[in-house]
UniProtKB/TrEMBL annotation:
Domain Glycosyltransferase subfamily 4-like N-terminal: 29-204
Alphabetized NCBIfam families for the sequence: mycothiol_MshA
Keyword Transferase: yes
GO molecular function, one term: D-inositol-3-phosphate glycosyltransferase activity
A Pfam short name: Glycos_transf_1
Residues where Mg(2+) binds: 314-315, 317, 341
Biological role: Catalyzes the transfer of a N-acetyl-glucosamine moiety to 1D-myo-inositol 3-phosphate to produce 1D-myo-inositol 2-acetamido-2-deoxy-glucopyranoside 3-phosphate in the mycothiol biosynthesis pathway.
Protein name as annotated: D-inositol-3-phosphate glycosyltransferase
Record's keyword annotation contains Metal-binding: yes
Binding site for 1D-myo-inositol 3-phosphate: 16, 27-32, 85, 118, 142, 162
The organism of origin for this protein: Gordonia amarae NBRC 15530
Listed EC numbers: 2.4.1.250
Amino acid sequence: MSVLPVPRRVALISVHTSPLAQPGTGDAGGMNVYVWQTATRLARRGVEVEIFTRATSSSDAPVVEAAPGVLVRHVVAGPFEGLDKQDLPGQLCAFTAGVLRAEAMNDPGYYDLIHSHYWLSGQVGWLARDRWSVPLVHTAHTLAAVKNASLAKGDTAEPRLREIGEQQVVDEADRLVANTATEAAELAAMYGADPERIDIVTPGADLDCYTTGSKAKARAELGLDPGERIVTFVGRIQPLKAPDVLLAAAAPLIHRSWQPDSGVPPLRVLIVGGPSGTGLERPGVLIEQAAQLGISEAVTFLPPQPSARLADVYRASDLVAVPSYSESFGLVAIEAQACGTPVIAARVGGLGVAVADGTSGLLVDGHEIDAWTSALESLLWQPDRLAELAASARGHAEQFSWEHTADRLLRSYGQAMRSLESSKHAVLKEHLNHKGALGLDGIGQRV
Ligand code: UDP
């Protein structure tokens, strides 16, 4: 098999969220981390990466060299502030114009490939791909059809507009990158994507930042009690992530554990992250829920944390909970395990890959509060079981590195470039054959 081509320069499109934003609130989450981590790894492999994202502040410089070999281009498309994600489809024309303009300032053939993230970026990539005659690789990150099939109570369904736009991108992309085999199967079954065009590329964790370490030290850093048992939620506060399920399920255990003669350490829930999306966007919603459940004193809220500090959060926790209704992968689960902390997660989407059920954590079916209470109890009050899972957590997480992700992405890029080359070659050949049949030479002269 011949060596696959490697792009010199990739246009990476991330319309709705910048890799420079702090993840954990608003629209900034796993996709930002993914874009940043893969861009820097690709750059280290000699591929220049230019990330196009929407300018959201007048202070965003048009071009920022964010790391060696990684440029972030802030495209002005609509007002800097006050524009929701659902308003962005109306700005795609302006955004695409900005992308095309950046390329036009350079030599033709400046970008070898486009990698779009989320369907909004896919729409931009589709047009730019046609204009530049380069391949389009697309990562969906989340799929509307999957999300709509397992909505949280009170959550808003993804609009038809997105379903249509997402379908178009799936149909148009030269290659699709899926986080797991589950996602690849969903793309095939729900969107009719040809499995031959799908590459399964698992995301990773920064294994140098997320490392095991002293729990006591991490708790001291964060001002947390060394004697408590701590279960932690990390992520954007939104219905899909189900932090409310964790609070409700932990409440009876908290009540019991805080009795003077309970025989178990007092339980605390730590919630790290900020509001995002619909339903739980009011910062006070979880605070009110904790008050109604009578557990306010046993719940600690922390705003979004940078990764180095988040590593301490994971180390300080006895267990990290990811009760999401749907999750295409779940970076938080891998990061927590990389810090040696077991994970309890809903058995949905990519979490079945991110957590080794019974080895590095526990998967729970459904979102029934009683089932979650029992599952939490089976771990939190069983220190030996927790210790056993913790001992395997780092090993499981080590399978998921961003280096591995970058290698697999390069393979996907290479395949996309090779297919395009052969289809261009086939078109040219057909064109020449056609001319030959008409008695024309290669430049259209009659022979
Ligand atoms: N995150 C962070 N600080 C926080 C909360 C979250 O940096 O306070 C990051 C976290 O490290 C993870 C990402 O946000 O990499 C969330 O990714 P995940 O896949 O868990 O969820 P998503 O946001 O993609 O739905």
